[in-house]
Amino acid sequence: MPEVSWYSAAQPIVARYCTSCHTEGSALAPFPLQNYDQVYGKRSALAYVLESGAMPPVGFAGPTAGESELLQQWLRDGAPLGDPSQSPLPNAVGGFTYHGDTRAIIEKHCVACHVEGGVAPFALDSYEKVRAVAAAAAFAVANGSMPPWPPTRGFSRFTHERVLAPEDEFALLNWLQGDLAEGNPADYVPPRQEGEVPIPPDYNLKLPLPQPYTPTLRPDDHRCFAISWPLDEVAYVTAVDVVPDVEAEVHHVIVNIVDPEWAGAYLAADGQDGRPGWPCLISGGLPGTPIPRQIGGWVPGSPDGSVRDGTGMPIQPGSLVVVQMHYNTLVAEPQPDQSTVLIATTDQVDRPANGFLFTNPLWLQPGMMPIPAGDANVRHVFQVPGSVLASIFGEAAGVTPGEPWVVHNGFLHMHNLATTGRTTLIRADGTEQVILDIRDWDFNWQSTYGLARELLVQPNDMIRLECTWDNSQANQPIINGVQKPPRYVEWGDGTADEMCLTNFYMTRPKDGYDYSYAASVYIEAPKYRQRFNAGDLVPLKLLLNNFTLEEPGAHGETGTESDHDHDAAPQDEAGHDDMDHDAEDDDHSQVYRGHYHVYLDSDDDAAEHLTAWDANYFYQLPEDAAPGLHTLRVSLRGPDHHALGVEHETTIEVVGGTREQGVSLVDVNDWSEQPAGEDTHAAERPTAFSCPSNSWYNEDGALEVETGYCEYLSLSQPSKAPVAAGDKLHVVLWHGNLVFEQPATAHVAVAIAGRTVWESEVQIPADAGIYDLRVPLDFDAPVGSKVEFHLHNHGYNTWTLLQLEVEP
Question: Which end of the chain has fewer CB atoms < 10 Å from its terminal CB, N or C?
Answer without folding.
Answer: N
